[in-house]
Amino acid sequence: MPEGTGDSDGEWPPYPAAEIAAAWRRERPGAPTESIEIVTPIWWLAKLFADDRARALRAANIDAASLDLLSVLRRSGPPYSLTTRQIAYRTLVTAGAVSQRVARAENQGLVERTAEERTPGKAGRAAVRVTLTDAGHELIEQSVDEVLSREARLVNELSVTEREALASLLGKLLQQVREQTASGEQRSS
User: What's the CA gap between 156 and 148, in Å, rounded?
Assistant: First the structure.
């Protein structure tokens, strides 16, 4: 069990991240502990959400990579077709990972892959277009309902106002962290 996540009875303290921060301030006065009560719960939530999503995906008989691929195609709207470059951009994975995901989904009959005509006078390789099949469409419809319903239940105790405020703050934090880590180095304040 992660540090501060519970005692021997499996009970969680009221807010274990606060206890971790307090312990570091006590043991290392002057240590920069201001992030602990933000980052630690985000890590724990990510783990809890990921574990629950994995259970939902097993129940829906789909893996996370396939869900990601089929979801991005489904969200693109009719005709549910994107180039591999568009998929890579929208899923934030490498071209190689997209290629592997597409090949696996194609073998399962969930997508079709076609080479697009090269534009006259343009150098380089022709784009590869990936299109959701009827079987892929059916699987993503069932899977997304299962996943989103479970995730909605996990956050439903927050009021609409609380969810909107949290979403706004998380978006702001995500943008800030992306900007600070984009070059692989943190900028000093």
Answer: 12
* Cβ partners under 8 Å of residue 148, min gap 6: none
Tell me the pLDDT tens digit for each residue of 13-23.
566 898 999 99
In this predicted model, what pLDDT tens digit does every residue of 31-45 receive, in sequence order? 999 999 999 999 999
| Contact status, residue 73 vs residue 80, Cβ threshold 8 Å | yes
The residues facing 82 across adjacent strands are 130
Please tell me the pTM assigned to this model: 0.73
Answer whether residue 185 shows pLDDT above 70.
Answer: no
Name all contacts of 123-131 with Cβ < 8 Å and 24+ positions apart.
127/83, 127/84, 127/85, 128/83, 128/84, 128/102, 129/81, 129/82, 129/83, 129/84, 130/69, 130/73, 130/81, 130/82, 130/83, 130/84, 130/87, 130/102, 131/73, 131/79, 131/80, 131/81
Burial class (CB in 10 A: 0-12, 13-18, 19+), 36: buried
What's the pLDDT score for residue 175? 95
Query: Distances from the Cα of 157 to the Cαs of 5, 89, 188, in angstroms?
Result: 21, 33, 37
Instruction: Extract the tokens encoding 169.
Output: 């703050």
For the segment 72-99, the average pLDDT, to the nearest whole number, is: 95
